[in-house]
Amino acid sequence: MQAFTTLTGLVAPLDRVNVDTDQIIPKQFLKTIKRTGLREGLFYDWRKQKDGSQDPAFFLNQPRFQGATILLTRDNFGCGSSREHAPWALLDQGFRCIIASSFADIFYNNCFQNGILPVVLKADVVLAMMKDVLATPGYQLTVDLGNQTVTTPDGTSSRFEIDPFRKDCLYRGLDAIGLTLQHEATITSYEARRKSEAPWLFVDLRA
Amino acid sequence: MAAQTLFDKIWESHVVRAEPDGTTLLYIDRQLVHEVTSPQAFEGLKLSGRRPRRPGATLAVPDHNVPTTDRTVGIADPLSAKQIQTLEENCRDFGITLFGMNDIRQGVVHVIGPEQGFTLPGTTIVCGDSHTSTHGAFGALAFGIGTSEVEHVLATQCLVQTRPKTMEVRVDGVLSTLCSAKDVILAIIGKIGTAGGTGYVIEYTGSAIRALSMEGRMTLCNMSIEAGARAGMVAPDEHTIAYIKGRPLAPKGALFEQAVQAWQQLKTDADARYDMTVTMRAEDIAPQVSWGTSPGMVTGIDQRVPDPRTITDENQRQSTARALEYMGLTPNMPITDIKIDTVFIGSCTNSRIEDLRLAANLAKGKSVATGVRAMVVPGSGLVKQQAEQEGLDRLFKEAGFEWREAGCSMCLAMNADVLQPGERCASTSNRNFEGRQGAGGRTHLVSPAMAVAAAVEGHFVDIRTWK
Questions:
Q1: Cα gap B360→B352, rounded to integer Å
Q2: pLDDT at B21
Q3: Which of B16, B50, B228 has its CB closest to that of A104?
Q4: What pLDDT score does B20 carry?
Q5: Which residues of A are less than 8 Å from B258 in CB distance?
Q6: d(CA B414, CA A27)
Q7: ipTM above 0.90, yes or no
Q8: Which band of pLDDT confidence, cut at 50, 70 and 90, is reported for residue A207?
Q9: Do B315 and A33 touch (CB under 8 A)?
């Protein structure tokens, strides 16, 4: 996984609440057996107008937001389906950081598995940034994972919270499965103890 | 020992180790796998040269892409076919049990787990699917995960987790005639909102919950994720144990008796504390109909479509106006005036035998309204077989419903069962997101009983007084 330390990047605004993963990447793009190439499905239905042409009002279609690496959005981003295709598609589009006033749990987890930093800031801070992004072409933010801050162009910093363990894994780009396998002996002894307490849990389903 | 909630007991018994910040390596007893969220996980195992730690703890089934029409002719969509073929190959390569598309035991992953006795109280169960919360009906800690975590569980039988908070949702009293678990959970989501449960595991308690059948409890727990909670649970009781006994994958003989003794301890201690409690009265819950594009946008059948102009909160006003525009609804119109084009009875929320029995008996002797297309998709091949043995298929077909093969079908429309733009559907599924059942499609979430009545009348009606 790609490590995340600091990022200064162009910000794209998605001024909506409750953006669900069906909107981030609709079902027809879930038939892939790969993790890559999902950019074309990102916000597929919202990119289009009723006649099928590209909607110039949608942020992803606007030249000024091309190359954005930070997505700024609102409450409960990523709700609904657990599809990891959602962070894969965002990553494929170039987003490494998503700032929102809140996230749905599964999506939030999935971001960390893919080197994307999800940042929760207070709703009023997000709203103020949203206004600035829309009013200021080329608006950039600096996200510093080590110091847990987001800094605006005028130098104002907002601190965000993150679990120390998750932070460390993302900061160093660690392989999550490899980390768990370092504790294989502990897992084995857990299994042995558990099997004596609850043997029915260890019946092989293939039998 | 300090008093514990049901959640605390299951969590504590699955801690393998904990980091100083509380991050926990949690043991996962069982995993369900389907074709959409697993290919990249198996690919990851192959690329890293890893093998599943306990292939015998995993059960796989294709459900999202399968056609609900005659399967002997194969799958028309080559991408769907490829995904299902990939699942078959992966299960063969890694030694995982698969119920293939033509196996009578095939069905929606959250229907077949309980049906087979795979789902047991006190276990941790995961699946790359958010509706894994369904299995919490048995007093299991069951939650949806992403594909990277599917791979993690295959390789290690563990997951790295932060401990969620606990929420009690207590519903006491007696439900009105033909009001169901679906109406209860929709009313709960309407009350606490689609992010109300974020960061929590919900335990449903109270006399109205105790009175629910196991299938009702599955419907209830299924939609916990729509309230933002990754998991919902109901403490096991005699209904739970009776349901499990004798199922193919359930423990047998002395092992079953030993398990039952352990399951009887799985309840929240009298003096245990939840981080939050929400209460409702069953009598206050009317049959629910969603009117918007999020499951929290829901109201009683005796209510009206909201008027954005009367909403003071700017965000809520905007999202309501946007939802009404997408849904093609007029502010203040009575819910009963909403006319529908399509009816879908199915999904991991409402496709089990009790749902079909109730729906078929309500459809008996009636006819689907002119211009309405109504389909019934059983949750599994075994549910379908049972329904046919009871003659339910005949009741449906005589009333003008289509009777189909098992799968996820129009809940998310990954197969050929898709709404056309602007088409309006009364659906027993769980999500009314924009485009969920087909681009431009309009979904109203309802119970099976409400769906049948809407199919017959061509618009929503109050099932409590419907003749």
A1: 12
A2: 86
A3: B228
A4: 86
A5: 199-200
A6: 6
A7: yes
A8: confident
A9: no
**Closest C-alpha to B146, from A84, A9, A158, A114:** A84
Contact B50/A205, CB-based, under 8 Å?
Answer: no
Q: What token pair was written down for B291?
A: 């009117």
Q: Say if strands B15-18 and B24-27 run parallel, antiparallel, or are unpaired.
A: antiparallel
Which residues are CB-contacts of A198 (< 8 A; sequence separation ≥ 6)? B122, B259, B262
pLDDT tens, residue by residue, B131-155:
999 999 999 999 999 999 999 999 9
Edge to edge, what strands does the sheet with B158-161 contain? B15-18, B24-27, B158-161
Residues B255, A200: C-beta atoms closer than 8 Å: yes
Global pTM exceeds 0.80: yes
Tell me the β-bridge partners of A157. A151
CA dihedral sign, ordered A52, A55, A59, A61 = positive
Which parts of B360-458 are beta strand (E)? 373-376, 402-403, 424-427, 442-445
| Tokens found for residue B208 | 């109205």
Q: Give yes or no for a contact between B166 and B57, defined as CB atoms under 8 angstroms apart.
A: no
Q: Determine the pLDDT at residue B174.
A: 98
Torsion of CA A189, B230, B407, B216, to 10 degrees: 100
- Counting as low any pLDDT under 70, the low residues of chain B are none
How do strand B165-172 and strand B276-281 relate by DSSP bridges?
parallel
A145-164 residues touching B, CB cutoff 8 A: 163-164
Q: What is the pLDDT of residue B467?
A: 87
Rounded average pLDDT over A15-19: 95
Contacts of residue B10, defined as CB under 8 A and 6 or more positions apart, other chains included, come to B122, B123, B124, B139, B140, B141, B266
Residue range A60-84, pLDDT digits in tens: 999 999 999 999 999 999 999 999 9
A172 vs chain B: nearest CA distance in angstroms? 17
Mean pLDDT of chain A: 97
For B59, half-sphere exposure in the C-beta direction (CA atoms, 13 angstrom radius) is 27
CA distance B443 to chain A (A): 14
* Neighbouring-strand partners of residue B28: none
pLDDT band at A50 (very low <50, low <70, confident <90, very high): confident
Do B121 and B243 meet the contact criterion of CB atoms below 8 Å apart? Answer: no
Compute the nearest-CA separation of A207 from chain B (Å): 8
The first and second tokens of residue B307, run together, are 């008027």
State the Cα–Cα distance between residues B33 and A177, nearest whole angstrom. 18
